[in-house]
Amino acid sequence: MTLPHEAETAAPESGPERSPAGPGGAGSASRRSPQGAERTAAAPSDAENRSAPEETPRRAPGPAEATTPGEATTTKADPAKPAKPAAGVRRGRKAFWLALALLATLLLLALVSAGTGAYRIPTADVLASAQHRLGLGGAPLDRVGESVLWNVRLPRVVLALLVGASLGCAGALMQGVFGNPLAEPGVIGISAGAAVGAVAAIGLGLSFFGNWTITVCAFVAGLITVSSVYLLSRNGGKTEVVTLILTGIAVNAFAGALIGLFVFFADSGQVNQITFWQLGSLAQATWPKVLAVLPCAVAGLLVAPFYARRLDLLSLGERPARHLGIDVERLRLALILVVALLTAAAVAVAGVITFIGLLVPHLLRMANGPGHRFLVPGSALAGAVVLVAGDLAARTLAQPAELPLGVLTALIGSPFFFWLLRRTRRKQGGWA
Q1: Are 334 and 216 contacting, i.e. CB atoms less than 8 angstroms apart?
Q2: Which among 174, 194, 200, 394 is most buried, taking Cβ atoms within 10 Å?
Q3: Is the Cβ–Cβ distance between 259 and 203 less than 8 Å?
Q4: Cis amide leading into 44 (omega within 30)
Q5: Residue 390 in 3-state DSSP?
C-alpha cells in the first residue's frame, strides 16, 4: 500500500521514463548512450534552425502557390537562363524556318535546273533573261539560249514543281484520311489506276474533251481506284495497314494487266506513249501541258489546307472526331476527291511516279511533328523540291541519255518504304 506522500515522491522519478520531453528528460537522457544523447539533443536544434527559404526549393510548389507574391520571393530564379517559350511557339517557329528553307531550296534548284543540261546557261544569264521577260531590266540571251531556256527547260521545271507538289500533298492527305503512315497514291494503286485511264484514252484514240481528254480519263479512273481500295481495305470500321497494302498490290497488278492489254492492241506510236506513262518522265513537257494540269493542281493545292484542322481531329479516332462535330464520311469523301484530282493531274502529264507521296510527308513528320496545319502545305512544297531535284538528277546522271523519272524515284523510295515497314512493325510489336 502506497502512502500519499510516497506517490508524490515517486512521480518525478517515473515521469522522465514515460515522457522524455518532460521536466526530467535530461535525467533520463543521461542514462542513455552518448550517441543517443547527441541525436536527441541535436534534433530540436536542427528543427529550430531550419528556415522557410531553405525548405522551399525542396518541394515543388503547386499552381496556386507559384502565383502568390509571398512564395514568389522565396523561389531562387537564375537570371542568366531566359524563360523557355511554350511548345506551340517553338513548333511554330520551327515550321516557319523549315518552310523558309524549303522555299529557298526550291528557288535555288529551279535556277540550277533551268541552266543545267547539254546547252549550259549560267545562273546570272537565267536571272537576266527572266528579268527581261518580266520588264524589270536585264538582258535577253541569244536566239538559241532563249529558245532552250523558255521552250525546253522552264516548262519542265514548272511541270516538275506542279507534279511534285500534287503528289506530296496527295500523300499527306491519303495518310490522314486512312489514318496510317503507309498510305500513298502509288502504293495503294491510285497512280496505276489513273494511268489506266490515260492509257485507255491513248489506245482508244479518245478526244471528246480535246486537250483535256487524258486528264479527265485519268481523273475518273483514279477516283474509281481510290474508292475501291478504300472500301475493300475497311474492316470493322477501320483500315488495317496490311489489308491496305495487300489491296494496293492487287489493284496494281490488275492495272498492270489492263495496261499490258492496251499495249498488245496498240500500234507502234501508241506503244511509245504508253511506255511513257508506265515509266514516268517529264521529257515531253511543254507549256500547253503545263496549262492543262495547272487548274487541277492549283485547285487541289488551294483546297487541301482548309481540311488541316479536321484531319488533326480525325487522327484522334473516328468516334472522338464525331463527338467534336466532324462528319467523318463526308470529310473522307471530299478528301478522296481532292486526292484523285491531284493524282490524276500529275499522272496525266508525267506518268506513274511513285513514292513521292510516301517519302515526303514522313520526312516532314520527323522534322516538325504530325500537325496537318504545316504538314499539308509543307508536303506540297517539299514534294516540289524532291521532284525538281529528281528530274535534274535524271537528266544529268547518265548524259547524254536520260533516266526515267519514275524509275529513279522507285529506286530511292523502295528502300525507304522497306525501312518504314520494319520500323512500324517493330514499334507495334508485330502485325497481329
Answers
A1: no
A2: 194
A3: no
A4: no
A5: helix
